[in-house]
TrEMBL record:
It comes from the Bacteria. The lineage of its organism: Bacteria, Bacillati, Mycoplasmatota, Mollicutes, Acholeplasmatales. This is Glycosyl hydrolase family 65 protein. GO terms for biological process: carbohydrate metabolic process. It comes from Peloplasma aerotolerans. Residues 676-736 form the Glycoside hydrolase family 65 C-terminal domain.
Amino acid sequence: MGKIAQRYLDVDPWKIIETGFHEKQAVVSESLFSLSNEYMGVRGFFDEGYPKESLIGTYFNGIYEIPKNIQRSHYKGISDKSHYMVNAANAFYTRIFVGDEMFVFNPNNISDYKRELDLKTGEQTRSYQVKDLFKITFKRILNMTTYQVSHQNIKIEPIHYQGQMSIQIGIDFRTKHWGKPGFWDVKAYGNGYALGYTTTNQSLFSRYNLDVNTSYQSQINFKGRLNIETINFNLNKPVIIQKTIVSLIDKKGEKSIDTYLEESSKLLNHASYEKTYQDNQLFYQNYFSENDILIEGDPENQQGIRYCLFQLVNTYLGVSEENNIGAKGLTGEAYSGHAFWDSETYCVPVYLFTNPKAAKNLLMFRYNTLKQAKKRAQELDCKGACYPIATLNGDEACDLWQHASLQFQPSSAVAYAIWHYVKNTKDIDFMLNYGFEMLVEIARFFSSRGQYNQDQTKFGYYGVMGPDEFQMMVNHNAYTNLLAKESMFWMIDVYETYQNQPQIQKVVQNLGLTTSEIEVMKKQCELMYIPYDEKTKIYEQHEGFHDLPHIDIHSIPVTDFPLYAHWSYDRIYRNDMIKQPDVLMFMFLFNQRFDIETKKANYDYYEPKTIHESSLSPSIHSIFASELGYKKQALEFFRFATRMDLDDYNRNTKEGLHLTSIAAAWVNIVYGFGGLRSDGNILKLAPYCPDTWKSYQFNFHYFDSNIRVYVNPKEITLTLDQDLKEPLMIYDKAYHLKKGMTTIHVGN
Ligand code: BGC
């Protein structure tokens, strides 16, 4: 595999624990201890400031910057980095003064450092002792249901120091973006509040109130973009300062200060740390009772998968159609907050089987941004709609032209997700009202971007980049060709099945879809070239892949990772090393179309060449390893996928969590060990228990039933909260499951 774990956290089933301060991992910890609630996200930075490298990051879903002075390319179709998520105000700003001297965190002067994240409440606690003077404890929590509310709790307990102390707390709009000065313009401020605007006129209003358990004098000080309140008190007993913060945003920047003040007052009046703690307890109790994954006999993976479940629900609950899932969620600035094809490919399956409304909302995001995808297709001299490789608002925002212009898997991922969603929910209304229109435009894009070879025997895509981003400008990438063919086919299929429905007729009329256009597509589908060798059963990733110079990936030292930071950019394109599954990716999406020999031949050929530079890679390999009986490898890849961030496998967790691979970890256990297959006409399960586990349990939602699946080496037990409306294939037998428990012996 080439990558190794960098373990420094304690293992616990319900907590993430850092015992002792790990300076080398300080920024990794900032990412790991991030909290979010879809609306906003806060990295686990030090409230009191940290003198070395740190990313003080607070982010709001949908608050982004459009740089004013973009140097537009002279070349048509080359995209510019058009927008990116901005770092917002730090409402946890704190500075501590002992007497007149500012306390600066220094690992040599502190002891008993401990940080914990409680996955049952979303409360983060960090404490340490400063010499033998005093002990300090910071707590932080974001309300999971009243999204605008968060809290900071600071407790100072005297040991040998008794005397004057000051704590500055405030709202800091000076936060940096990618290390450069931020853009916030603070237009209004007052006691305990500040209102800032981005250059694109989106606004953020931050306001707090305080509850202090001792008498104190307070002094307010406005320093431009920093709004500080200094609290002076005498430390002669434990002092607790509770700060309740309300953060309100307006994406259009139209809300007046009075409206903000009124709205925030209402929220502040009803908020308290204790209330949020209780709200969250209930929230996580409900969440885990429906979604928990239990692993008996493997504490590290148990912690890993729970952490994934926790961060998953922190990032996206399906609250709004306007939100999507950034590759780093709301935990860092890498990838600029952008959503990728990851949402449809790795996240939709999770939500489809845990929270179908959220899956639909992710698709609605694409429907609502169809207009921009059509514009992008035009920029690329094509018809129809080309969905962006990276986006927050629907526009293409990737400034690497080779990705933005050559990768089409976002478009086919949208088509796949529509097909996959409707297949598993029978939400025909969605297909008629929204899905079909997207399919028509995506099919048109693929029809117009594809080309025939000179003797007109092969149709396909020249000059593309498939999911494996280590191969650029290739011809006949098997993934791209196959997915394009399917996308066109799905559109034709829906058209032919539902052409008498008024919604379909309306779309056909509005978009001017003609039968001759459909005939052209049918011919293209028929001649779509998928490079394949019948003798070896191997699909060639793209024409010419087999001849590329070979590199032994195990010869690459671990210090070279991530490769993008250590190898010259062109060097990674010149050999047969693979970043992430490409052939295996389409075999995953259409798993049931390929026989086991074909899957084995391709896995055995491609896996040894794969470096997993993309965090999305290990989970797919684990699923295949399970299916092929490579059980040890399946577990190794699962650990890699599940503890990707906790153990910093890819050495870049400090930039933010790999949120979409966190979704892939769910897919890993459910499709891998659980054997779920959702690409056929009947949903299938074929669970097995990894050799070193005693048992495991997962849940999924299907046609209004919640299904709990418990697996041990001998049997599986399914517990349903109501009769299942659809049949379910378990191993090779179809079951009509009823409410209650059904036990099946493994192998029967
Ligand atoms: C992967 C892409 C992915 C992106 C965001 C890249 O490293 O190669 O497939 O969409 O990360 O997760």
